[in-house]
Amino acid sequence: NEIRQGIINLENFIKDLKSPNTFIGDSKNCPLKHSFSDGIYVREITIPAGMLILGKIHKHDHPNFLLKGEVVVITEEDGVEEIKAPCSMISKPGTKRALYAKTELVWTTVHLNPTNTQDLKELEEEIIAPTYEDYEKFLENTNNKQLKQ
Fold first, then answer.
1. What is the pTM of this model?
2. Cα-atom radius of gyration of the chain, to the nearest Å?
3. Which helix (H) or strand (E) element contains residue 72?
4. Cα-flanking dihedrals φ and ψ of residue 123, to 5°?
5. For residue range 53-108, what is the model confidence (pLDDT) as tens digits?
């Protein structure tokens, strides 16, 4: 897919920059708030205006809420969209976003947390696929498990 490849190329370009103005992963530049409820993990990120962000590949569908701001979002499924808060949407499995924050954003995602863990590394392993290849392996394993049942 052309859009997928463009997002991957952009991510690789940013990784190769090694500039003090770029960062990979969690950062004080984009504060995170983690909340937990029975079987639920809520992740809220504040993104300053002018930031270019590349999201991670999510394994499962989940709700998203843009609570504040205006953003340009690129996904394989929907191409380029401008979204204004307040807005809710459901991310499909395998979604990876590139986004540009036109204004300061507050973006919240809600994920299932069946083990009620509060270990962020464990949650990320459950929720995120590091690469599309890892996502495809996850799908294969999930389909194989379902076939055996």
1. 0.87
2. 16
3. strand 70-75
4. -60, -45
5. 999 999 999 999 999 999 999 999 999 999 999 999 999 999 999 999 999 999 99
The one-letter amino acid code at 5 reads Q
Residue (of 102, 117, 105, 101) closest to 40 by Cα position? 117
CA distances from 123 to 81, 110, 111 (A): 29, 12, 9
DSSP 7-25: HHHHHHHHHHH--TT---S
Using DSSP, how many helices (H) and how many strands (E) does the chain show? 3, 11
Q: Length of the chain in residues, anyone?
A: 149
- E strand or H helix at 144, and its extent? helix 132-148
CB 55 within 8 A of CB 127: no
Q: Which distant-in-sequence residues (6+ apart) come within 8 Å of 83 by Cβ? A: 66, 70, 71, 72, 73, 89
Handedness of CA 110, 116, 120, 123 (dihedral sign): negative
| Distances, alpha carbon 44 to alpha carbons 48, 67, 68, 111, in Å | 13, 10, 11, 11
- Unique residue bearing structure tokens 């979204």: 83
